[in-house]
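tokens incoming
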């Protein structure tokens, strides 16, 4: 277990990487059309109708030029979109002197285009963080000296030196001594890996231990990290331009409008009827209603801490059917927590944790931080260590309370007592890391640590399925066993473990061939997969710049349930956009029919069209409002209660350990020591845990009931409270039945052991259910 991690920026030269995208003509067009419409309105109010018509006509004429350019560009790509209908409508208003209608159409066209352009300027995927992480130089041994040379000069067979905190420059083999590497950039896994001499290592990994020699087995261009950058670039380039929702509807609305106008002209011999048809066929529902609904959805998502980069991403998210997720940091917290503490026979788990945390106070290692956090959550008073040293790959050593101690990996020569072998088995079964505590060269305890699931992950996945996601799979660089356990707990459809960035990209491409696919990740190693997906989602709160810049959606808060919020908002915004566009077109079709039969002159048609526009835009604005059915709204007092009881849960780990430890000690021939452990467990239950459960039942659950739909929503959890109390009373009864010999009677052992193990299991399940169903509701 390594205890030394240095940021990858140390010892590296950086090459700046910048992308600049200039704004197009859309903002200028929006400004001109807005000024023209406003000036014309002011002139009309001032009693100068000719000046008003001139202003509105100018605004209309100005809009025709870029609209024609956009139409020609669309035609070159093989499709005619909503802009062609706009050009015909603009020309028609000029032909029949309906300048106000033309100015309104021009403003709507400019507004829709500006919204789309502003959101779409990130079309080229920004790979700045990937490039900044890549080393530009390497230190090469040559003739007994070490020289810094450009990375491009490194050849296969060169002997390199990789210092602490530096990035492995090229693929190679460890030439000595053993290397301790942080491979999170490549795998997404936060734990470090020890590579003995002659072990192959990949470029991009960070040296989290001491300096080591590396024998290059590949050049810069053929190494792993260069491949990651190429993958991200290629995946970003593969993303086809999104066809606007408005253009999809315009594909049939356009020919229908033109055909209706032509038939009206031919049948009546009057060009005015044809113009009247085109005026009422003005695609304002498409030009404004759909963009307004989509932009309203973007605004709504941002209030939930979700940044969606453009309307196309929101549309695709609303139509997605497959969800792929990274595991570490996405489905899990990304930071280890203490799972259990085990003491040698005769020892106390509390003393083990206090000693380990005392020594680990000055260690920068992520596991050391988790040990210290667990001790502080339990209110343990830590001692100040002295003579502290840290050996990469081994752990910390020092003197605590006059005893020589070490925390981390024991020496290979250390004697492994039977209880230690049981800890090893437990670590394998639970997929946990182990920090061993050695006191005066003797193993005295172990702290098991694991990266736990996020409390909000199960609820998030259920809500995503309700939003239309049909298939959910996990893509991870982690081992298969913990990945399968995660998938089983969350009810995922597929598990793909042991994947490098190229493997994740291949998996994303395969899923994209079947359905619109969302990929969620948080690390630099996820950036290529995010860029390859139809919708890439990054957990930006962790500061993984590369994944955020390669993504279409960024969750700015460290809560994965915001993805479910974003999906629900996307589905609703797209539904409202479709409703607005289709409703507006149907009303326009009715008006077109009237105009074709001469029942609606152009001027009246323009007024009617404006009424249709107002109606569909107002409907589109509904996307700004919250959907009360999509979220559970908690009162501030209820949120405070949730935070209070969640904090208490964090402090009950020692109670769970005491219950399990007592059950473990209850074996044939055990006497006062086992009985003392049972009595201590019962004391903790009576003094701390049962009052907590009582308060939950009578304070938290009644406060939650209104938001969850009534008392029945908490009935199952109340039943768990009853079972916990029943088992605690059963343990108390056994203690009362103990004879004067100070040990349980033989006939008590089986039931007492079963009661304790059952209580431990029920408590763990109950805590997990409360954290998932209730505590995850509060921000």
């Amino acid at each position: 277990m390594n205890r030394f991690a240095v940021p990858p920026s140390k010892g590296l030269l950086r090459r700046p990487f910048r992308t600049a995208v200039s704004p197009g003509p859309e903002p200028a067009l929006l400004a001109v059309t807005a000024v023209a419409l406003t000036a014309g309105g002011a002139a009309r109010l001032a009693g100068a109708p000719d000046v008003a018509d001139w202003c509105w006509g100018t605004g209309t004429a100005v809009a025709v030029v870029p609209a024609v350019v956009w139409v020609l560009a669309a035609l070159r790509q093989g499709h005619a979109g909503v802009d062609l209908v706009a050009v015909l409508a603009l020309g028609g208003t000029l032909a029949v002197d309906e300048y106000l209608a033309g100015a309104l159409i021009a403003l709507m066209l400019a507004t829709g285009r500006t919204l789309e352009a502003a959101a779409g300027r990130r079309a080229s995927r920004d790979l700045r963080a990937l490039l900044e992480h890549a080393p530009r130089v390497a230190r090469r041994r040559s003739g007994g000296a070490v020289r810094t040379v450009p990375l491009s000069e490194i050849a296969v067979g060169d002997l390199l030196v990789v210092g602490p905190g530096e990035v492995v420059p090229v693929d190679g083999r460890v030439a000595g001594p053993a290397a301790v590497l942080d491979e999170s950039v490549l795998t997404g896994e936060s734990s470090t890996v020890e590579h003995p001499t002659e072990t192959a290592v990949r470029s991009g990994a960070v040296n989290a231990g001491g300096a080591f020699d590396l024998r290059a087995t590949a050049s810069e261009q053929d190494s792993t990290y260069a491949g990651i950058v190429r993958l991200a670039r290629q995946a970003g380039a593969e993303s086809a331009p999104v066809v606007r929702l408005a253009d999809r509807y315009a594909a049939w609305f356009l020919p229908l409008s033109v055909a209706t106008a032509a038939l009206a002209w031919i049948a009546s011999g009057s060009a005015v009827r044809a113009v009247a048809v085109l005026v009422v066929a003005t695609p304002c529902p498409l030009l404004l209603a759909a963009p307004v609904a989509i932009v309203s959805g973007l605004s709504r998502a941002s209030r939930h801490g979700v940044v969606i980069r453009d309307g196309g991403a929101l549309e695709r998210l609303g139509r997605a059917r497959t969800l792929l997720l990274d595991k570490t940091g996405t489905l899990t917290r990304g930071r280890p927590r203490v799972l259990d503490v085990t003491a040698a026979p005769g020892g106390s788990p509390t003393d083990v944790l206090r000693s380990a945390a005392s020594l680990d106070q000055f260690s920068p290692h992520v596991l050391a931080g988790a040990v210290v956090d667990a001790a502080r959550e339990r209110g343990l008073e830590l001692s100040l260590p002295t003579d502290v040293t840290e050996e990469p790959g081994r752990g910390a050593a020092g003197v605590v309370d006059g005893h020589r101690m070490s925390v981390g990996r024991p020496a290979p020569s250390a004697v492994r007592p039977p209880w230690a072998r049981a800890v090893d088995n437990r670590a394998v079964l639970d997929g946990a890391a182990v920090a061993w505590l050695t006191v005066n060269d003797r193993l005295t305890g172990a702290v098991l640590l694991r990266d736990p699931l996020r409390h909000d992950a199960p609820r998030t996945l259920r809500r995503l399925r309700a939003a239309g996601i049909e298939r959910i799979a996990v893509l991870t660089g982690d081992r298969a066993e913990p990945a399968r356990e995660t998938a089983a707990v969350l009810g995922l459809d597929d598990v793909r473990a042991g994947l490098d960035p190229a493997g994740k990209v291949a998996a994303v491409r395969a899923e994209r061939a079947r359905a619109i696919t969302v990929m969620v990740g948080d690390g630099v190693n996820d950036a290529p997969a995010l860029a390859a997906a139809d919708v890439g989602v990054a957990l930006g709160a962790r500061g993984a710049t590369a994944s955020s810049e390669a993504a279409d959606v960024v969750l700015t808060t460290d809560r994965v349930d915001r993805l479910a919020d974003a999906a629900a908002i996307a589905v609703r915004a797209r539904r409202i956009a479709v409703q607005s566009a289709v409703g507006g077109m149907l009303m326009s079709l009715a008006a077109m029919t009237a105009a074709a039969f001469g029942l609606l002159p152009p001027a009246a048609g323009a007024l009617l069209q404006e009424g249709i526009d107002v109606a569909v835009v107002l409907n589109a604005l509904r996307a700004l409002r919250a959907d009360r059915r999509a979220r559970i709204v908690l009162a501030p007092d209820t949120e405070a209660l949730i935070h209070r009881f969640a904090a208490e849960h964090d402090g009950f780990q020692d109670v769970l350990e005491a219950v399990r430890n007592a059950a473990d000690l209850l074996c044939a021939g055990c006497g006062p020591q086992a009985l003392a452990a049972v009595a201590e467990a019962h004391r903790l239950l009576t003094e701390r845990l049962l009052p907590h459960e009582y308060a939950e039942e009578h304070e938290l659950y009644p406060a939650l009931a209104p938001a969850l739909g009534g008392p029945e929503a908490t009935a199952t959890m109340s039943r768990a409270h009853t079972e916990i109390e029943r088992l605690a009373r059963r343990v108390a009864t056994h203690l009362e039945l103990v004879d004067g010999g100070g040990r349980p009677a033989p006939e008590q052992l089986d039931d007492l052991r079963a009661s304790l193990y059952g209580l431990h299991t029920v408590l763990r399940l109950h805590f997990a259910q409360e954290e998932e169903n209730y505590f995850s509701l509060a921000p």
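note: Residues 1-21, 119-128, 235-243 have pLDDT under 50 and may be disordered.
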